[in-house]
Amino acid sequence: MKPLDKIAKEGKLSLGLVFPIESYQGSVPQMKDQEELAQLAEASGFKSLWFRDVPFHDPSFGDSGQMFDPFVYMAHIMNQTKSIALATGSIILPLRHPVHTLKSINSLQVLSKGRIIVGVASGDRPIEFPAFNKSLEQKNALFRDSFNYMKGLDQNFPTYQSEDLGVVNGNIDILPKSAFETSYLVTGHSGQALDWIATHADGWLYYPRNRSFLLHTMSDWKASLEKAGQSWKPYMQSLYIDLVDDDDTAITGIHLGFRSGPAHLINYLKEIQAIGVNHVILNLKFSQLPIRKTIEILGNKILPEFN
Fold this sequence. Notes:
By secondary structure, this protein is an alpha/beta fold. The protein has one domain (3-305): TIM Barrel (Alpha-Beta Barrel), CATH 3.20.20. 32% of the residues lie in helices and 20% in strands. The chain has 8 helices and 12 strands.
């Protein structure tokens, strides 16, 4: 079974959490007790934990993710948990060399015994690109080249030629090799046509949008999959929540999500499940309840309805 199959099934919806698993103001989290909270998330029934790739702290952007390098931190959390899927959301391909990226992915896949899922993106912070001497205007082409290079490298003694990234001619190989197939999810459009994503990616990772937008997006996704000769590939999305321990609390909007009681969150998740969403990555940054309490409510009231 592929790691992706553990969290995404056609017609079903499952839930994951993104680091940092805490509420905080501003862009820099405290990162306290994250190991214990990861264990609690796993014990509560969450299917996945997600790791951000944020090379630089840009105060104006307001989000530094979990701060630690995603692969290093993933290895750390891997050693604190047992079987929960560990996913990147998302690795910025134009700002990393594909050889190092694939070496990290394969190493983690082997060491975790097949728990790794890889979300990839082209990058949404223009201020970072000059630090890597990369052209913002070429990031979409760099994303595609890096993606194809990684796929090409993940063969025995591969051959691949890239004007920007390098050449391998079949006389060197990347180790370790993993017995577990790595699934790649493209985030947003990453500068690519949806038909390209449907053909080359193993799933699509998007952002929370209103019902009409989601219906339109899902229709486009299914049409692109059909054109690519694919019957189904998972559609996933992120969601910020501020959960209130009161079923009568109605939905009010927050950044990229909403505040509500458990009943309204369940109704929302069932609605998007019916539309075709297969996995939702919850972000607890704006939680007003203590984080352990929020996870407890999610584990007791929300997760049994799904997963």
